[in-house]
Amino acid sequence: MAQPDRPLRADAARNRARVLEVAYDTFAAAGLSVPIDEIARRAGVCAGTVYRHFPTKEDLFRAVISDRINGIVADGRDVLASGDPGEALFTFLRSVVLWSATDRGLADALAGVGIKIEDAVPDLEEAFLGLLAELLHAAQEAGTVRRDVDVRDVKTILVGAQAMQAYKPDAAIRLADVVLDGLRAP
To answer: Residue 124's closest CA among 180, 64, 166?
Structure first.
């Protein structure tokens, strides 16, 4: 996760790490609308401690989501490198839908709810879209995905599938598969 510019005292470093851990868990469980004061309370620190490390909620969000999206991009690259390029996109999209079932903060971030990811962490949005483009291109070259869709279409489909997860969790993967079948080449 993002590190401060100068070394912290041991107690300050522990507090910062605790705030990030609690913020990640809280954003994952409740989405990005949770107030910083609530995160401070759950972390067992005063709100001033949170604001000292993260002057704005966007700074806290940026620190939390950066690590998560970097991990997702790395996982997506592993999927692309390890298997059938024609199915890698589908495997990756299903896994992101499953992650969103337990990480509302991630789902909110990808959907632009609360804080727009492209504004808060533009390099991560670019990395995520770059990965989607690689997966899409590989699948199109393999002949498994329609050629008339682009990376923004795929992200829109992903955000819609995540919304299905929130609306009807018990059927989300089945419904996501129905939607993803629409990406398949005829």
So the answer is: 64
Whether 55 contacts 145, CB under 8 Å: no
Provide, rounded to the nearest whole percent, the portion of the chain with pLDDT above 70.
85
For the whole model, what pTM was predicted?
0.72
Rounded-to-10 torsion of CA 26, 31, 37, 38: -50
In whole angstroms, give the CA distance from residue 135 to residue 146. Answer: 13
Q: Token digits for 14?
A: 């522990």
Pull the structure tokens for residue 125.
């949005």
Tokens of 81: 């490198």
Q: What is the pLDDT of residue 40?
A: 94
- What are φ and ψ of residue 92, in 5° steps? -65, -45
The token duo for 99 is 């992650």
1 token code pair: 């996760």
Checking phi first, is residue 154 left (phi over 0); if not, alpha (psi -120 to 50) or beta? alpha
Contact 185, 143 (CB under 8 A): yes
Alpha carbon 108 to its chain centroid, in Å, reads: 8
Q: What are 79-117's pLDDT values in tens digits?
A: 999 888 889 999 999 888 877 766 766 666 666 666 666
